Amino acid sequence: MMIRVESLAREFSGKGAPEPVHALRGVSFEVAPGELFGVLGPNGAGKTTLVRILSTLLTPTSGTAQIGGLDVVTDAMRLRRRLGVVFGGERGLYDRLTAVDNLQFAAELYGVHRREQKRRIGDVLELVGLRSKDRARVETFSRGMRQRLHIARALLHEPDVLFLDEPSNGLDPVAARELRDLVRSLRDAGTTILLTTHHMFEADQLCSRLAVVVDGGIVEMGTPAAIKGRADVGRTFTFADYHGVVRDRAVLDALPGAIDVSDEALDGYVRWSVRTAAGSAVDAAMIARTLDVPPDHVVGEPATLEDAYVAIVSGAP
Fold this sequence. Notes:
Keywords: Antibiotic resistance, ATP-binding, Nucleotide-binding, Transport. By secondary structure, the protein is α/β, with parallel strands linked by helices. The chain is built from 11 helices and 14 strands. The chain has helices at 47-54, 76-80, 99-110, 114-127, 143-155, 173-188, 200-206, 224-230, 250-253, 284-291, 305-315, and strands at residues 3-12, 21-31, 36-40, 62-67, 70-71, 83-87, 161-165, 192-196, 209-214, 217-222, 236-241, 258-266, 269-276, 298-301. A hairpin with a 2-residue loop joins β12 and β13. α3 crosses α4 (114-127), α5 packs parallel to α6 and α8 (224-230) crosses α11. The model has no long low-confidence stretch (mean pLDDT 93).
């Protein structure tokens, strides 16, 4: 395994605080080489604390974590040369310097040999799509361009593992899509990545496995499909009514487990939606029988990762 975490815990205590704050509570998981592993959770759940411990910026209170066989505490100095870290909204670039100058400074800090610096800087700028902006000052960059430059900087020394802590935070939809494409290309090239995010679509698209963290502990872990399948969530069924089949919405309201019925008048028809509660016996066939229409006229929309996430977080103790 590239990353192995066992019973990792971290407490914070401040002056005058009656009790310590448990940011992490016995977290355990493994990440295989080349895997893109996602960590989801509400604000304050412990995601950034986890990334800071794994990237050797913070020591755990108890438990162990190893990356590539090196301990994050006892082998921290050796390990840092093998890790790349990007925090969302991070400030660490020099605005009045060009992209190349920023990366050259970072290359010196990372210990990249001077004979390799020019090649590596060119390679990472090409990878993140900033080769044409290599001589532009960073103060002229958009937020999305800055985030891509942060990733370029994190990749300069060819790390074994890349940590991305909410990298798309605050990006507009176009910049967020470009960032997802970049992360996907890194994943496909075999980079081991640990990603924290609040964007469920992003996690569903990119991650091979996910861990949901609530109050410092992992409450669910598995593939996105498995998590969506295990979560106790309701479903939404839709029906396009072209001929006025639904004459009384009370018929739909009376379906067992129906918690919301809505209609939308569109061009030449009415689109009906029936949202059901978790565990409801309602399915497309039942609705079709109720309306006396062919079964394929009613479409059941599968639960999304966001649906599953909300159900998991809301039901966590």
